[in-house]
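Researcher: Final request for today, and then I'll write up notes for the group meeting. The sequence and the SMILES for S-adenosylmethionine follow.
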Amino acid sequence: MNDCFYLMESEEETLRLELKTDPEHVEQQARWAGVKQGMRVVDIGCGTGKTTYYIHKLTSPNGKTVGIDILEDRVRYALEHYKKDDNIDFFQRDIRKPLTDLGSFDFVWIRFVLEYFRLGGLDIVKNVCSILKPGGIICLIDLDHNCLCHFEMPERLEKSMFGLASALRKNANFDPYMGRKLYSYLYDLGFQEIEVNVEAHNLIYGELNKIDAFNWKKKLEVAASRSGYGFNEYKAGFVEFFDEFMQFFSSPKRFTYTPVIMCKGRKPHK
Ligand SMILES: C[S@@+](CC[C@H](N)C(=O)[O-])C[C@H]1O[C@@H](n2cnc3c(N)ncnc32)[C@H](O)[C@@H]1O
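Model: Predicted protein-S-adenosylmethionine complex:
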């Protein structure tokens, strides 16, 4: 694994992130988390900058929002598409390295990033806490049972999905169960006023829309190719697995959801 490894990276990852990010949902989550006008906010692992932009709208007119991401191309895209005024900015940074040159913030937001760090997640939270002011708020958001809750899936397909999830944990440092860990991170770090909220993400039933079809196609293609999983349940391996998944997933009878867990807390004044 190279130093800049991001499991989902592909030529179409920017497009996938843009399409699947629902501004209304981001705003709802940010309001729940306590983002308010005038705050200085940092969006950790900001992707295309879309989440940063909608969070920034809640801090405007006199707040400041900074998005950071490890990938140069993604930061360039964010600057081109979402740097709409002087109070929003984007920088290339590795969240495993010191970040104190960015200044200090009233609010730290980390959504759909820690799941890529089965090992090392707590260290990242510790690191980003170094740029959170005492009394500031952190909000961690991740999926739980990622890609694993469906009805009524053929048995061999279900077996492959769980096999794939285990292989990703082992070989790609990915954690399909990150959501449930978030509370313990804030608890162990001594955060106060911790609150947790659980909702359904990817709530899919009836006709499959184009965005969900594209998102799940990419999730499986990209993650599976890097998982090292053999798909031995199928004679033709991945190709046959993928066809069976898309057939199942395209049926309006299928029911799919993923729990999304949000956890917020206040950094203690020492
Ligand atoms: C699934 S996207 C999440 C984007 C956005 N936070 C959201 O809620 O949609 C994960 C992002 O984390 C970034 N990332 C992965 N490892 C990173 C690291 N070590 N430092 C900074 N960003 C990283 C990836 O480049 C990617 O853009």
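Model: Residues 6, 17, 21, 45-47, 51, 69-71, 74, 94-96, 111-113, 116 surround S-adenosylmethionine (CB under 6 Å). The mean pLDDT is 96.
Researcher: Thanks, that's everything.
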